[in-house]
Design a protein that fits this description.
The protein has eight helices and six strands. With about 250 residues, it is an alpha/beta fold. Helix 1 crosses helix 8 and helix 3 packs parallel to helix 4.
Length: about 250
């Protein structure tokens, strides 16, 4: 299927490794011109070499207060416009009942506030052209305990749904993708091979962990003109891991 993405522009956050890197590579293969953001410049530059195409490389920590403005300005300076925004950066770790306020602030800032701020800095130029795609890589809605990222991702889903209703008539869609168990640095660091094997056999209907490319495939479709009638959606890519029916 021709996704009609040739010549479009995209900004992908958290693009240095794992899901973000796969998304950036997949969009580049579709002919999209890219700006990529992460803390580790050397990994972004290695992605540029791997793709064999010039990228607008933006080394930035999203926890910096001025990060949304710096990223938006750099992306627009490098690309001219941003048609597609992929909010992928984030991080997760379990919290205790007595987790200090600073850690809650960090989790909400990294996983919700910065994505919202960056999106709103890029909306006006999308609305001017009456075309845009905002795709959020979020998280599951079945928390097994307290986790700041779960709360932030729930906020992302609610905000994205509301935003989709405001900008739909401007040709802009807003969708969220909560990944399941996708092999990445974080997964390999947090889960043993034995646990991954057990979960694949007992909890994931398709019988295995996903690959970053599984997320990237859906991102490319949602970013395309062919997905014009899909907005305000939360579409899990999890091999059937989640148990809720919609």
């Amino acid at each position: 299927m021709d996704l009609q993405l040739e010549g479009r522009t995209a900004l992908v956050t958290g693009a240095s490794a794992g899901i973000g890197r796969a998304i950036a590579a997949a969009l580049a293969r579709e002919g999209v011109r890219l700006a990529v953001v992460a803390r580790r410049r050397e990994l972004l530059e290695s992605l540029e070499r791997e793709l064999g195409a010039p990228l607008t490389v933006i080394a930035c920590d999203l926890m910096d207060e001025d990060a949304p403005e710096r990223i938006a300005q750099a992306a627009l300076a490098g690309l001219g416009t941003v048609d597609i925004l992929v909010n992928n950066a984030g991080g997760s770790r379990p919290f205790r009942l007595d987790t200090p306020e600073a850690q809650w602030h960090e989790a909400m800032t990294l996983n919700f506030t910065r994505q919202r701020q960056l999106t709103h800095r890029l909306l006006a130029q999308m609305m001017t052209r009456r075309w845009g795609r905002i795709i959020n890589i979020t998280g599951k809605s079945e928390p097994e305990g307290i986790n700041g990222a779960f709360s932030a991702k729930a906020a992302m889903h609610a905000w994205a749904k509301g935003l989709s209703r405001e900008v739909g008539k401007q040709g802009i869609t807003v969708n969220s993708i909560p990944p399941g168990r996708i092999l990445s640095e974080q997964i390999l660091r947090n889960y043993t091979p034995e646990y991954r094997q057990w979960q694949s056999e007992h909890e994931i209907p398709v019988g295995e962990y996903g690959q970053p490319q599984d997320i990237a495939n859906l991102v490319c479709f949602l970013a395309s003109p062919r997905a014009r009638y899909i907005t305000g959606a939360v579409i899990p890519v999890d091999g059937g891991l989640r148990r809720y029916q919609f």
